[in-house]
TrEMBL record:
Source lineage: Bacteria, Bacillati, Bacillota, Bacilli, Bacillales
Amine oxidase domain segment(s): 12-446
Job of this protein: Involved in coproporphyrin-dependent heme b biosynthesis. Catalyzes the oxidation of coproporphyrinogen III to coproporphyrin III.
Pathway: Porphyrin-containing compound metabolism; protoheme biosynthesis
InterPro entries according to UniProt: Amino_oxidase (IPR002937), FAD/NAD-bd_sf (IPR036188), Protoporphyrinogen_oxidase (IPR004572), Zeta_carotene_desat/Oxidored (IPR050464)
PANTHER family: PROTOPORPHYRINOGEN OXIDASE (PTHR42923)
Enzyme category, top tier: oxidoreductase
Compartment(s) where it occurs, according to its Swiss-Prot or TrEMBL record: Cytoplasm
Similarity-based family: Belongs to the protoporphyrinogen/coproporphyrinogen oxidase family. Coproporphyrinogen III oxidase subfamily.
Catalytic activity line of the entry: coproporphyrinogen III + 3 O2 = coproporphyrin III + 3 H2O2
Domain of life: Bacteria
Protein name: Coproporphyrinogen III oxidase
Required cofactor names: FAD
Length: 453
């Protein structure tokens, strides 16, 4: 009899898992169940008046190969594009200042640009330079990013350089973000070289099969829009059901919200972070569901070029928390991606939603756009946008807090005892799309191996 697999959640994780099941075991039937009325989860592309607006992920780190491989496997290799080069600025002390040259994730690696930057006071610079002589901080026990970088480089570097950048990327708070789960490479550098500044000089971007050296380490995206990947993956799946929320999962059995029960030989859970507990209902799954999540709104603003100033030499800026603005970061998308806007236009993407004001993302589109414009006008000259697109992620941004890896390990050990049930998704091994793809592919391989045993 034909074997049947059910995948729950049609974000990139669920779609990838379903795709690889079909690829690895053609005669297995795959049903993909999605709670909402659309595919893609956080991936959403809006095309309007010649603009291509990514409302979720816009690109990904080229050095992580899983997504590039998947893109090539679905036949979109010719659509891969590199971001245009450019640096970021930081809005701090009411001024935009360039990130010092050689900074990686806001962490200084070169002394001269650090000595000359206006981002840090002379005292802050002396404190940061103490990294060169301080003993190791990380002792094989997870700690927060604030503690790790604070003890190595001092609080001014954190507040004015590292936190704005990392909070922008992860929508989180360094005070509880896990070093081991979020930036393990820095724990590794410290372990090997003791000083971060000295150790970072030895770091070479990992080599990547099929991507030229020049391209590695940069951002990649799809010129056709990220949603085309979603469509291509969906084409490979036998049966996709939208508006199909799942309530509970057990070996061989999926219970839908409406009470219907579906049978399957294997089940892959790739749903939203808060769903692991309710769906699987064992303590280690609840522990992940109870972990912190944040809300954010992404605001795309389309302008005629003449109606908004550019940030000189930068593709955008991040904002230090102490400035008290609603926006946390802002990108000139057409400075990064050729397809983002018509030639005479600019597409600006801002993020709002901080831990200090989590309700902000719940406000109306109009109120959110006005807040963004109000903040932008404090920083640069801004006229009236042609239109705006607001996208919210309510209570849906997983945060890897201290101890995350341990919780994931315990979850996977417990899940391993439930026959025929697997899990993947941004809650587990990385929130970047390549991490989700890698994790989903592994879940599919495990399921197929068990089915064909
Ligand atoms: C604004 C923004 C910008 C980002 N930028 C980048 C970037 O540039 N690069 C990058 O690499 N990453 C980026 N990310 C992160 C990345 O997009 C996500 O981590 C990734 O897309 C998550 O995919 P996922 O499939 O695990 O989860 P999701 O996309 O959240 O999908 C989960 C799916 O499960 C469904 N679901 C939930 N519960 C149930 C249920 N009970 N039954 C059935 N279905 C259910 C949901 O409706 C949803 O469709 C960004 C994220 C956001 C929000």
């Amino acid at each position: 009899m034909q074997k049947k697999v059910i995948v729950i959640g049609a974000g990139i994780s669920g779609l990838t898992a379903a795709f690889y099941i079909k690829k690895l075991a053609k005669d297995v039937s795959v049903t993909l169940l999605e709670a909402s009325d659309r595919l893609g989860g956080k991936i959403k592309t809006v095309r309007k008046s010649g603009f291509t607006i990514e409302c979720g992920p816009e690109g990904y780190m080229a050095r992580k190969p899983a997504l590039t491989e998947l893109i090539r496997e679905v036949g979109l290799g010719d659509q891969l594009v590199n971001s245009k080069s450019g640096s970021y600025s930081i809005y701090v002390n009411h001024r935009l200042r360039p990130m010092p040259k050689g900074s990686v994730m806001g962490i200084p690696t070169k002394l001269l640009p650090m000595v000359t930057t206006g981002l840090i006071s002379p005292l802050g610079k002396i404190r940061a330079a103490m990294d060169l002589v301080l003993p190791r901080v990380y002792q094989n026990k997870d700690m927060s990013l604030a503690e790790f970088f604070g003890r190595r480089l001092g609080h001014e570097v954190i507040t004015n350089m590292i936190a704005p950048l990392l909070s922008g990327i992860y929508n989180g708070d360094l005070a509880d973000m896990s070093l081991e789960a979020t930036l393990p490479q820095f724990a590794g550098i410290e372990k090997k070289h003791r000083s971060l500044i000295l150790g970072m000089k030895h770091i070479q971007p990992p080599k990547q099969v099929g991507v030229s050296k020049k391209k590695a380490g940069q951002l990649l995206s799809l010129s056709c829009g990220m949603d085309v990947l979603v469509e291509k993956l969906a084409d490979a799946i036998d049966d996709i059901r939208l508006n199909a929320p799942v309530r509970h999962v057990q070996t061989g059995r999926v219970e839908m919200e409406d009470g219907t029960v579906l049978k399957a030989d294997a089940i892959i859970v790739a749903a939203a972070p808060k769903q692991l507990g309710p769906l699987l209902d064992f303590p280690e799954a609840w522990a992940l569901s109870h972990d912190k999540r944040t809300s954010t709104a992404t605001v795309a603003l389309a302008f005629k070029k003449k109606d908004i100033a550019a940030v000189a030499g930068s593709t955008g800026f991040v904002v230090s928390k102490k400035e008290g603005l609603s926006i946390t970061a802002c990108s000139w998308m057409n400075h990064k991606w050729a397809n983002a806007a018509p030639d005479d236009c600019t597409l600006v993407r801002s993020y709002i939603g901080t831990e200090t004001d989590p309700k902000m993302a719940e406000e109306t589109d109009e109120a959110i756009v006005n807040k963004v414009l109000f903040d932008l006008r404090k920083i640069i000259e801004v006229g009236t946008p042609l239109f705006s697109v607001v996208t919210r992620q309510m209570d849906n941004m997983p945060q890897y807090t201290v101890g995350h890896n341990q919780r994931v390990q315990e979850f996977e050990a417990a899940l391993g005892k439930i026959s025929g049930v697997y899990a993947c998704g941004a809650i587990l091994h990385g929130v970047g799309v390549p991490d989700c793809v890698d994790n989903a592919k592994r879940a599919a391989e495990q399921a197929v191996a068990a089915l064909t045993e």
